[in-house]
Amino acid sequence: MLEHANVKNSAVKKTSTDQVSPIQQQPSMMTSTQGSPVTNRALGFSNENMIHMQRTVGNQAIQRMFSSSHRTGSSAIQREVTAGAPETVAAPTVEVAASNPIAAPATDVPAEAAPVAGLSAGAPVMAAPPQQARPAPTKDLKKYHNYNVVFEWFKGRAEKEKKAGLFGYFDDLTTGEKMSAIKAMCGNDRTPTIDKAKKTMLTGVFTKTVDWDRFSEISREAKAKNITNYNADQARDYASYAAIGTSGATSGVSGTAAMSNTLGAGGALSVANAVAPAAGVLSGVASVSQIYNASENYDSSLSTAGKAQILGSEASGGAADLTRFTAGTVNGVRTFGGMAASGAATAAAGAAGVVGGAAYLAGGVAGYVESSRNQKKLAELEKGFSAKGSTGETEQAKQHQRDLGLAANLGGSTQTINKTKSAVTAAKGALMIAGGAVMLAAALSPVGPILLAAAAILGGIGAIVKFYKKSKRQETFVDKALNIDKEMTKPENAGLSREKVRQGVLEAHGFNNVGQCYNQLVTDLASMLYEGGVAGQDEEAKSVIEGIGLEVNRLKKKPGKDLIAKKLHT
Questions:
Q1: Which pLDDT score, from 0 to 100, does residue 310 have?
Q2: How many domains does one find in the chain?
Q3: Predicted pLDDT at 190
Q4: Region Disordered: start and end of each range (predicted)?
Q5: What is the DSSP string of 318-360?
Q6: Contact 12, 25 (CB under 8 A)
Q7: Distance CA 324, CA 247 (A)
């Protein structure tokens, strides 16, 4: 790139006093020096020095005429020219803001690199003088007192709270990245202080500690990481969990009490009558939540079986459940009040049980078949990616294959979990059909309500098992991605538990816990699959997307990263 030089000598000073333009100065000086060797000697210049200076000034004039920085008025880095000129002056370098500042004004961020204006990309650089080697970007904050004070405070807290590994990741950020992070850790205030850092980053009631989860997130975001958690539970998810859990529990109590009463335990009848209304109400809430979630989770990119599960099983089954629970609540209230059960309500509950059971049975069978097929496909893909990951032509190609293998592994484990859940859903549907049929055939028989209660319990168990398996899967998947087995064999880790080794590796990568690393892996893999399989022409990435139950439409750029992430995880 072109760099401009300032050259000062007596001849230039003389012409400048006459207010001659820079382009006119050089020819004037060249004429006076070439025509008078005596003058040259009087000024203390040799002919060789004068020739060199003439060439330098001529080059400078050309550079000023054609440099984009000179035309646009943008600042350029200037460098001292030492060869042959008796007197030179180096202009101060220009500081520029570090890339990717987060909530930090450019005036607060130090220079990490000084780009030189004046030459567009691809322009020839043959006439440019040789560039001097620039020092590596500095990482300390000693020149920025307020930031450095907060930095040292966090350093002390990290040592005290045994988070040196995580702080090491933060310490390895560039100066600009650190300043951006510190600003965020101080509530994005313009002037960081320890008090502001304490207010933003300390957590705890009695014992205050740094919120290291947030420290990790801010540090990774400052490094321009996409830390979006596409699988974060929302309010509707928590409501659904609570409704499913409480309705399953109350249905279990009610069903068990009814069964005990049938077997001769007379005291159980009052329990069944007391719990039945609450069970019906809570189950109704669970059904409403299920219907709402089904509408929110529906997407045109889902496979045919996926759409059938959402609409036919979750939505239709939830609607039938809502009818059944409403009718059951009516009878529960009547029984609790000493009245006979309503025949119409009993018939409605029985019919809804049959309809809802059929929806769950069909959805469960379809889900089981598709999950089994996808599981096998992803297992084959993972095996192929693993082989290519060790024989690729370049390291970049090998890494891409390893990433595809990780995505296939994660998607495959999700399909395995979903296959189990689908089998439970099908069994739940079968119980509901049987219970509803009994209620329609013999309204006074306790068998129907017992079967329906068993179906609710089974559905709750299936949801809990799926949640548990997904939670445990996080640790296994993170260990695979970070190659913890290999880390355990290193001499420096001899005698350490797997948990300690894992934690050390996590902190070295900027994570405070397994959950953060898992969420980042899902986000990164979803982004990789989208960029290659949807936005790009990577057929291997597309095959993984299809393997997790999605249809790719490259014209519409669907599915998006968020849906890919959800299907990788759920």
A1: 82
A2: 3
A3: 86
A4: 1-37
A5: HHHHHHHHHHHHHHHHHHHTTPPPPHHHHHHHHHHHHHHHHHH
A6: yes
A7: 13
Q: Which tokens hold the place of 567?
A: 């299907």
Counting as low any pLDDT under 50, the low residues of the chain are: 1-35, 38-43, 66-131, 134, 268
Give the residue among 259, 299, 255 at the shortest CA–CA distance from 460.
Answer: 255
406: CB partners within 8 A, 6+ apart: 480, 481, 521, 525
Rounded Cα distance, 506 and 165, in Å: 9
Decide if 495 contacts 464 (C-beta within 8 A).
no
Do the domain assignments include residue 163? Answer: yes
Check whether residue 14 and residue 61 sit in a common domain: yes
Q: Could you tell me which residues come within 8 angstroms of residue 333 by beta carbon, excluding any fewer than 6 positions away?
A: 277
Strands 209-210 and 202-203: antiparallel
d(CA 178, CA 171) in angstroms, rounded, equals 8
Nearest Cα to Cα of residue 62 among 23, 31, 89, 25: 23
Give the pLDDT of residue 78.
Answer: 31
Tokens of 209: 């500690």
DSSP sequence for 137-196: PP---TTSHHHHHHHHHHHHHHHHTT-HHHHHHHHTS-HHHHHHHHHHHTTT-SS--HHH
The pLDDT assigned to 472 comes to: 86
How far apart CA 125 and CA 2 sit, in angstroms, is: 7
DSSP helix/strand/coil, 511: coil
Q: Which residues pair with 302 in a beta bridge?
A: 550
Q: Are residues 265 and 412 in the same domain?
A: yes
CA-based torsion, 306, 311, 312, 317: positive or negative: positive
Q: Is residue 460 part of a domain?
A: yes
Write the DSSP symbol of residue 315: I
Question: What's the confidence (pLDDT) of residue 295?
Answer: 79
Beta-bridge partners for 237? none
Q: What is the pLDDT of residue 95?
A: 35
Cβ-based neighbours of 248, under 8 Å, separated by 6 or more: 456, 457, 459, 460, 461
**What was the pLDDT predicted at 547?**
96
Q: Which segments of 429-536 are extended strands (E)?
A: none
* pTM, to two decimals: 0.68
Closest CA to 221 of 530, 520, 565: 520
Residue 334 lies in a domain: yes
> Do residue 433 and residue 383 come from a single domain?
yes
Taken in order 256, 322, 231, 166, the sign of the CA dihedral is negative
- 3-state SS, 228-243, equals CCCCCCCHHHHHHHHH
Residue 378 and residue 272 share a domain: yes
Domain boundary, last residue among 414, 434, 465: 465
Domain of residue 281 covers 235-465
- Tell me if 37 is assigned to some domain: yes
Are 243 and 288 part of one and the same domain? yes
Domain end call among 447, 465, 483 = 465
Strand partners, 4: 78
